[in-house]
Amino acid sequence: MAAIVFSLIFLRLSDPWPVKVLRYSTFDSMQEISPREKESDQIVLVEIDENSLSKIGQWPWPRSSLSKLTDTILSQNPRSLGIDIIFPEPDRTSPDLIAAQNKNLPKGIKDALAALPSNDTQLAESIDNNPVVLGMAVGYGTQRKIPDSTSDSILMIGKDVRNAIPEYSQVLRNIPRLEQAAKAQGISNIAQDPDGLIRRIPFVYNINGTLVPAFETEILRISLNNTPTEIISNNSKIKQINAGGLTFNTDQSGSAWIYFSNKPNTQTVSAESVLSGNVSKSFFTNKIVLVGVTAVGIADYTPSPTGQNLSSLSLHAQALDSMLTNTLLSHTHLSTSIELIFFLIIGIVLIWVANSYAALELTVAFAILCWSIILVSWGGFSYQKLLIDPTLALILTLSLYLIAASAGFFHEQKQRRSDAKEAFLREREKETRIRKLQNELMHTIGKSSVQKLSSSIAHEMNQPMAAIFNYTNAARRILEKDDTDKDMLKSVLGKILTQADRGSDILKSIREGAETGKTSVKALDVNRIIKEEVELIKDVGDVETVQIILACDGDLPLALANEIQLHQVLLNLIRNAVQAITHSDTGKSLEGEIEIKTTCNSDGMIQVSISDSGPGLSDQEKETLFKPFYTSKEQGMGLGLAICRSILEALGGSLWVEENKKGGAVFHFTLPPS
Description:
By secondary structure, this protein is α/β, with parallel strands linked by helices. Among the domains are: 49-324, no CATH class; 519-671, Histidine kinase-like ATPase, C-terminal domain (Heat Shock Protein 90, 2-Layer Sandwich), CATH 3.30.565.10. The chain contains 20 helices and 25 strands. Strands 1, 2, 3, 6, 7, 15 and 16 form a seven-stranded mixed beta sheet that branches. Strands 20-22-23-25-24 form a five-stranded mixed beta sheet, covered by helices on one side. It is elongated and about 130 Å long. The relative contact order is 0.08. The chain crosses the membrane at residues 334-353, 360-380, 392-411. Its EC number is 2.7.13.3.
């Protein structure tokens, strides 16, 4: 158990990516459960959205248009204006560049265009001497240096911390004219974690050994007191960062976790509304204003831990909002220390309880430790904005509990085996008696199964054999006549062969079902099979006093069934209906009618209804009618209806009986269409 404790401590200190993924998912879940409620009212977003593009024109706009937008915002004296747009190249729509690119223009027009100020100059003049912060991007472009004014805005207090911050070799900068005019510049592209989510905001970046502030850091500095950002270190690792007079706890690389809110930013306005004058004259006064592109297809959208897809502009706003409301989350060396203390406490407590107490006390200790870990982690998040990872601690607790419980279980099992050794001999004698009874029971079950199978085969073969017998007698009577009707004899002999084939098919079907457990099905015309069965019954049955009426739907679709089994079902049901009419309790033959109707029911199933005008069924007969070996006939086997129902249910249909409103009974069955 101690080896597991030290293994998890080593795993936490080495911190491979799978462990980070587990930790990040836990922290994301915390923000999903309890997103940030506290919000500042100091941030306003000016979005270059779809409406702005449709009214003003496609992106990129001429920088003269951005100059007008900037002038409108700055005229209301905001605290600062952060432009989340990078200008690495001159504006191609500037008048002087248009004149230079179009050599075929008349000289007078070219001179007039060249004399006009460039769009870049207009934008530079708009932001000059104003609290404007421009963005830069690390990891792009070919520049390896940064503007001198940017590095001057950072002050290190303590030891050199550059080695603690990830280093970048390239930076994408703005054109010199705009860099000279801007009050400050910061890195605006926030790096994603390997799983594609943005969770943390760096306060500073390391570009070829030079510390550069983040976009948010510079906005905060310009908005509040315009003093250099202070990096407070401890043993060459960042401990705190002071930006704009606000102090933030960070990890050793100078990053903090954004505490996301799931509420939309209410102070949002379209750039088109600003340019058209549809905002109040004090809308931006004393506010931190962020300008950026949010139009779908142009702006980059990134999923947040709370499940929202946020534009770059919204991400900057969420980060600044967390800074201004002092709700940034931190996962510092203190968090790591608490997590490691968890491991030691868990190991000591569970090892001591496992060696000193029973399973109940071990389970109680396990539950107390789990809840303590969860409460400490949630309390740090809720009240101190400190992220403490409970996952490895809970895994350790569960692992040690399972090991201790398993060890106790094996010890108990060993004792039980010792106690059971004496009982084994007594049980052997009992098992011998039980085995003997089982053998007798299996023999009885085997005999019963053979009897049921024999009864089933006899019942199914009874019908074709009876038909063969009747047809053979008819053939003999024809032959006994002096003037033998050869055509009639051929017809009767053909029917004998048909019934013989049918008997063979029944046996084949029973054998296939016994061997494979499956029945072959195909698309069948139910109306045709009904007519064949009615003709058979009229030929061999006593139906002189019974009128059979067919009401078959001519548009009936084909049914998916086994032909032999469908013949069996129809013959059983029609013969039962005939016998219900022709044989009363007194044994006298009665008259009546049978109606056979086919249709499609509301469920799309093919439904066949066979109604008779017999005496009907009692309540007791309705309950036991479909049970095997139940019969109301002296010579009956009681298997017909039970076999019919099992056949239909195996085909996906059903069989049931109802009272006939005209007297008698109605048997309904359904089949699926092909």
